[in-house]
Structures are given as structure tokens and as C-alpha cells.
Amino acid sequence: MDLQLIHRCQICCALMVILTVLRTDVTYCRDIPKDFVVEVKSECHYSNGGRDVRFLERYFYNMEEFVYFDSQVGWYIAKTEFGKPTADSWNNNTAIIEQERNLEERFCRYNYGVFDALIVQRRVKPDVTVSPMKTGSSGEQHRLACYVNGFYPSAIKVKWLRNQVEETSSVVSTELLQNGDWTSQILVILETELQRGDTYTCEVEHSSLKEPLKVDWELQTSKSAKNKQLTGIVGFVLGAVFIIVGLIIFLKNNKGASRLQIPVNEGLLN
């Protein structure tokens, strides 16, 4: 396929649009504007795994679409009254209609084969991070954030589980954001009273993953509480050691004293 040829055809069509628009202004006795913008968009729509293709070529005048070609119909269709003269003119031009009808095969299907591996088959696994979010002046934790980043394609499912049971009513999500490199990111927040002993899981389903990716989070003990708990454990262990050592010494001393006792035989003194 000659892409330069298609580009030249689009330029020619754009020039024809300009001439048609200007001629329409004259026909309707309107002043020709000093400044105007004519825009052409060529679109390929794929479905059913690329087997079904629809080619659209859309024309805009000052940001308003007024006529377009649809390969499923095979003709130009006017979007506004302003576009009817253009649609009628081009539909009566056999060369233009034949060229547009061929673009579905030469432009859309060809490019699908070229970019299939790069775009359609491409898969990038997401990175998942779970962290608490402090709210209120007391700094109490009432929200958990699941940050999912760097995945492609953009279709993804993120959900929160508490002890393996899905949470639905208390989950909010940001809109899907583009990173600029075709990958996306999203933030899903669980708003709830975090309970010690519960396990919170962010579960991500994506086409790049063979199975759902799960990241667990549990409410950790504060640093001061951990220090107190550690001090108590150390004290208990040391106390137990001292008790055991003292008991061993006592038993040894008691055993030695019993060995030193010699029974007196009164019969030997006579």
C-alpha cells in the first residue's frame, strides 16, 4: 500500500472540501469568512478480533462535522444541511466513491496487520502498591489506597477484599489516567474502619496476568506499642531464666546437704 498516495488523496479531498464550502457560501449568499478551519479525520474501527472493519472519513468545518464517508454504507452522508451539496457532489463522482470504498481494505486492514503485534497483542503487567492514608487530626487510619500503575492495555479490574470477602459499598476509584507511553494508572481506595487482625487484599485482574495479582495488607502495631510489647517479652524471658537458674541452684544445694548427713548408730558407742 502506498501511504503517500493516500495522503495525497486526503489533501486533494480537503482542497475539494474547501472549494465546495466556499461555493456553498456563495450559493447561499453568505459572506466568505476570512478565517476558517477545515479538518479531515480518517478512522478505522475494528471488532471481532479484527475480522470486522469499518472505515470512516469525517470532514469538519470550523469544528463542526458536516459530511462523512462510511464504508458500511458505501456513500457519503451529510450530517447537516450545509453538508448536503458536498455529499451529493462526491456521491456522483465514481472515481471518489471507488477510492473511498477501497480504503477499508488498503488502509484499515493493511495497518491492522502491521500494528497488531505492537498494539493489539502488546501486554504490560501492572505494578501494585498498597498503603494506608491518614485522615483527620488524630491521624487515625480509615482508608487504604491501592495504586495500580504501568499496565497495557487499559482494560483492568481492581477490587478490595476484607478477609477474602469483597468490599463494594466503601470503595471509590479515580478515573483511568494515561501515562503518555500508552500505559495507564488508576487509584482505588477502600474507606473503612481498619481493624487489627483483619487482612485487606487488593486484587487486580488484567489480560497480562495469568491469574489475579493479590497484595495483602494488615494493620501493624504502633512503634511505641511494639517497644512496650518487646520490653514485656524480654522481662518475662529474663524473669523465667532467673527463676530456672535459682531453682537449679536450690536443688543442687539441697541434694548436697542430704549427702553429708551420717546416721549415728548408738550401738557402736557402747
From TrEMBL:
Residues 1-29 form the signal peptide. Its main location: membrane. Pfam families: C1-set, MHC_II_beta. Residues 126-216 form the Ig-like domain. It comes from the Eukaryota. GO terms for biological process: adaptive immune response; antigen processing and presentation of peptide or polysaccharide antigen via MHC class II. PROSITE patterns: IG_LIKE (PS50835), IG_MHC (PS00290). It is a single-pass type I membrane protein. The chain crosses the membrane at residues 230-251. GO terms for cellular component: MHC class II protein complex. It is found in: Membrane. Keywords: Adaptive immunity, Disulfide bond, Glycoprotein, Immunity, Membrane, MHC II, Signal, Transmembrane, Transmembrane helix. Gene3D superfamilies: Class II Histocompatibility Antigen, M Beta Chain, Chain B, domain 1, Immunoglobulins. This is DLA class II histocompatibility antigen, DR-1 beta chain-like. It comes from Geotrypetes seraphini (Gaboon caecilian).
